[in-house]
Amino acid sequence: MENIDNVAGNLFEYDELKMYFGEDYWVTDRICITQPTLGDIIEFGDSKFYSVMATLCANTTSVRLQLWNMGIDWTKISDYELFIKLIRSFTPDDTRLVLGDLNLSWFIPYIKDNGEDKNIILVYIPRDENGNKIPTNIDDAIVIDELVYLRIVDYLRCMFDIHPKVEVNVKGKTTKQWIIDEERMNLEIEKKRREKKKKKKSFLYPLISAMVNHPGFKYKKNELKEVGIVEFMDSVKRLQTYESVRALMSGMYSGMLDTSKLNLKEELNWMRDLYK
């Protein structure tokens, strides 16, 4: 049987237009993903927000160093198993911009035995005001199985354009140790670089600054807080494409560019699909 991780991209099709207009996406009848505006993210803190989203959308490759330090080979567990390990670390405040008041830390692993095989699912166990678990009938509980997890993470990756690298065919302890050593060295270099700057780098600031100062961008700064993140990031990509087309046309007409190997019908169309 083909691994479910490998077919996830073929299982889920989202309405891109609804996403562009910021409509909610119901993963199940009990779990809903909402889209934050720029104002929501700015108020939350964009460095913190994207850090949370990166962790929520992580795969085993993106956190392989942390797993290795825990004695876990990242090639031996699935992304869903990683999610089961991470889910209790998310507070409602961490995820409220995308999952509302759903408390991920209240989900606990439960082995579901259907007679033929056993699957691990995550069951939502609510608590009272004193933090005591409230007895829950599993048939009435909110459940996250592997398919629901994939729907959640695939949608979030699409919405925030987070596509972690997937490591394939990594075999041999020596090769894995080399990869880990290199990643540990790169992490140390990045840590020293950040210490010199003495502050967290904003992801959105340079993008907002570039868009506000571009003559083709229609929003003023005081209007941006109401814009959904998908619409804004689409504008960034669209204007980048528009400027690339202008540069290409300028090179063509000046005779400084060889266009014999280019698909001009595609390359000169700034309205083309940017998400193929």
Spatial order of strands in the largest sheet:
3-4-5
Helix content: 40-55%
SSE topology string: HHEEHHHHHEEEHHHHH
Low-confidence stretches: 1-10
Strand content: 5-15%
Question: Over the alpha carbons, how many angstroms does the gyration radius reach?
Answer: 22 Å
Q: What structural class is derived from the secondary structure elements?
A: mainly alpha
Please give the number of β-strands: 5
The total number of structural domains is 2
Basic shape: globular
Distance between the termini: 27 Å
Question: Main beta sheet: strand number and arrangement?
Answer: 3 strands, antiparallel
Number of helices: 12
Look at the structure and give the mean pLDDT.
87
3D structure, described in words:
The protein is mainly alpha-helical and 276 residues long. The protein has 2 domains: 4-168, no CATH class; 204-267, no CATH class. The chain is built from 12 helices and 5 strands. A hairpin with a 5-residue loop joins strand 1 (25-26) and strand 2. Helix 1 (4-11) packs across helix 8.
Tags for this model:
3-stranded antiparallel sheet; disordered N terminus; 48% helix; 2 domains; mainly alpha; single chain; two-stranded antiparallel sheet; 276 residues
